[in-house]
Structures are given as structure tokens and as C-alpha cells.
Amino acid sequence: MTITVVGHGYVGLVTACVFADFGNTVWVIGHTPEKIERLKKGDPLIYEPGVSELLEKNIKAGRLKFTLSYSPAIEQSDIVFITVGTPPKNQGEADLSAVFTVAKSIAKYLKSGFTVVSCKSTVPVGTNNKVKELLMKYKSKHATVAVASCPEFLREGTAIHDTLQADRVVIGSDSKHAIQLLLELHEPINGKRIITDLSSAELIKYTSNAMLATKVSFANLISFYCEKTGADVETVLDAVGLDKRIGRMFLYPGLGYGGSCLPKDVKALISTGLSLGIDTELLDAVEKINLQSRDNFVQKIFRYCKGNRIGIWGLSFKPDTDDIRFAPSIEVIKALLSKNYKPIAYDPEAMPNMRLVFATQVQYADNPYEAVKDADALCILAEWNEFKQVDLRRIRKLMKRPLVIDGRNIYEPSEMKELGFEYHSTGRKFT
């Protein structure tokens, strides 16, 4: 099968690499010449485990092609995926301008015959119907097109695994032919098949992300109770998570959720709800608690740190990615700079991206040890495995004051006390 993927971000590039590895011919369309040239040379542009290897392998095999042009990619394709970004506007609603621009461009190059145009971008209910209208308006009379919604559920850092070992494959369309083609394309992928209508497929994605965000904020709300009462949040959530109806996944207290999906999707669902006259108070609270969790962390720094040199571990919004979109680290660093603290930061992958946000305001270290040398405090903002494996005795000797404020609960309080640290985590007592 020949497919085209419009967009080469996390979703687009992973989708393209995986389907090419299945033996399909895959075109990837971008709009920035420099990026397309880098992709052609095997540079994935992003840090995502396993992508670089798949990219190089399938370029060499001739199955993966990168281009700036919609021709001949669209004419040759059986399926076209839209994977462009839908960032939030000022009021939280999804910016769909890129989706609609791409839809118009696709329409003009559709071949004579049948083509499926499937949206993997996260879009509000009703968007794919508008995509269909644009395709019908701008296509030639000889082209036959069907629209589908095929949302992705990959996590940055485990994107390839999540694509191959999916919990579910959602296909929304009113075309039996489109559904059959998409089922055939996804045949090598594990996961339950959910065949539904366009609106349901669109809402499934938002509902999933809103539920995950709710679990994170709920965990943080409980951590607030624990800090006020002396209860241990990890014990509480471990016990709660053993209930099979609830589970432990995403009941993680700390700095809250960030990244390219949960923040914007919660905002977009709120915006859609308001436009439909739905009370969104629950989701409003999810957002509010997420912000409170970061403020709670910052206030610990102000309360306990008497000096001004702050070591920071972790800049990405989560480990195993270089993505800093809506990363808690940005807000924490802004708060520190506003109080004239001097942060020195280290992250295994995200420092180049963070330099675009804080150029000379933040000092960057080459390793975790350099970041804590003569530091008055260490702040842990992302739970990279590298941080869990450091020599804590060496860290203790390097610091001016052995104060650790852990936003991800990566160490045991009893161990930190035994090593001579003053250790403040989230929702746990330092005994």
C-alpha cells in the first residue's frame, strides 16, 4: 500500500516510520526545506527512542520518502494521514488552521479513483465533517474520497511501542471501503479494533486525555491532604491503585501534567463544552489543581532554600523525550528567576530546546554532578533514570547545602535522611 503522512512531528514521523517498516511505501510531506533535508539524511529532528533506527532503515530500503510537494505523493496514495499540530488559541480552543489548510491542499492533488483521508491530529468533534466539506469543494470531479478519524494514543518516550502494541485501534468513518483499507493497513498492529462514527472517534481521543489529566490532578489533590495531615501519599495511592476499577497508572503526585497533549486537550474540551452549553466545572478543577501543584513546589523552594544557587535536574515534561511544551520546568524556572535565584540545569536531551526559552538566564551543566556543585538546593523536575542511578554520596559532598526538593518522588525519604540530606518530596513525610 502507498500512504502519505502530512506532518513530521512526533505523531507523523512515528506513524510514517512504523508503516514503512511494515513494507508500505510512505511519503512524508513537510513545509520547511531545512527540516526535510535533515530528515532525508536520517536526522529525526526529535529525540524519541527507536525512531532514528527505523528512520535510517526505511530510508535505505527506499520505502520512506520526504518531500515539500503534494505531488506526486497524494496522487499515488491509497491513504493520506493528516498529522499536523492543533495548538491552543488564547481561549483554549484548538487552532485548526493547519488542518484545514492541509485538507485544501490534499484535495487539489487527489487522484482519479478512491482515496481515504484520515485525520490523526487531535481535533474537536465536528472537525472531520469540515475536512470532508473542504475535500469535496476543492477536489476534481474524477476523484473519489472518504474521510476517516483515526486518533493516536502514543506516549512520548514510548511512541513506537505504543504504536505497535496499542490498547486499541480506533477507526471512525461512514465509508465501509475506508474502514476496510484502514483495517488492512493496521493489520500488523495489536489492539482491539473500535469501528465507529466520526464524532465518536474524535471524542474518544479527548476523553482519554482528559481522564488521564484528571487522574494526575486527583493524585496531586490527595498529596495536598497528605502534606497537611502527615499521611504518606505513595502508600495511599498504592493501596487505592490496587482496586482494579481504579488502577495505579497516572495516579502520580508531583509537578502535574505537561507536554503537547494533555494541557491543550483539556483546554480544548473545556472550550468545546462551553460552546455546547455544558458545565465544565470538573475539567476547570483539573486545570486549577495542575497549576496549584507547581505553585506548591515553588513555595517549598522559597520556604526551605536560604541561598540562591539552585541545581535543576530535568527540563523535559517527562523522561525519554526532549519535548518541553507546557513543561513544568518552564514555570518553575520563571518563578526562580523572578526571585533572583541562579539556576544551573541539566537534562539528558532537552537542554538545546530550553536554551531557546532561557538563553543566558540559565546556566547549563554537562552532567548531574556539575549541576549540583556548590548548590544551595537541588530541584528534581523530571524522573529520568539517570537521576535515579547517581552516586548520592558524591552529590551530598558536592552541594553547599544538602537540600533536595523532589517534584517526582524518585527517592525514598528514609534513605535520603540516612545519607544526610534534607529531603522534601510530594505528599510524603521526611522521617
Description:
It is built from 18 helices and 14 strands. It has 431 residues and is an alpha/beta fold. A six-stranded parallel sheet has the order 3-2-1-4-5-6, with helices on both faces. The chain has a six-stranded parallel sheet with strand order 11-10-9-12-13-14. The longest helix is centred in the middle third of the chain and has 32 residues, at 198-229. The radius of gyration is 23 Å and the shape is globular. The protein starts with a strand and ends in a 7-residue tail after the last strand.
Layout of secondary structure:
Elements: E1 2-6, H1 10-21, E2 25-29, H2 33-40, H3 51-60, E3 64-67, H4 73-76, E4 79-82, H5 97-108, E5 113-119, H6 127-138, E6 143-149, H7 159-164, E7 165-172, H8 176-185, E8 190-196, H9 198-229, H10 233-241, H11 262-275, H12 281-304, E9 309-313, H13 328-338, E10 342-346, H14 351-355, E11 363-364, H15 368-372, E12 377-380, H16 385-388, H17 392-398, E13 403-406, H18 413-418, E14 422-424
Helix pairs in contact: 1-3, 5-6, 9-11, 9-12, 11-12, 12-13
Short characterization:
This protein is of the alpha/beta class.
Which key features would you list for this structure?
431 residues; Rossmann fold; 6-stranded parallel beta sheet; 18 helices; 14 strands
Oligomer, anyone?
single chain
Separate helix tally: 18
Unreliable segments of 5+ consecutive residues: none
Mean pLDDT: 96
Number of domains: 2
Please identify which CATH superfamily of the largest domain we are dealing with.
Answer: NAD(P)-binding Rossmann-like Domain
- Structural classification: alpha/beta
Cα-based radius of gyration, to the nearest Å: 23 Å
Which descriptor suits the 3D outline? globular
Major β-sheet profile: 6 strands, parallel
The CATH topology of the largest domain is given as Rossmann fold
Query: Helical amount among residues, as a percent range?
Result: 40-55%
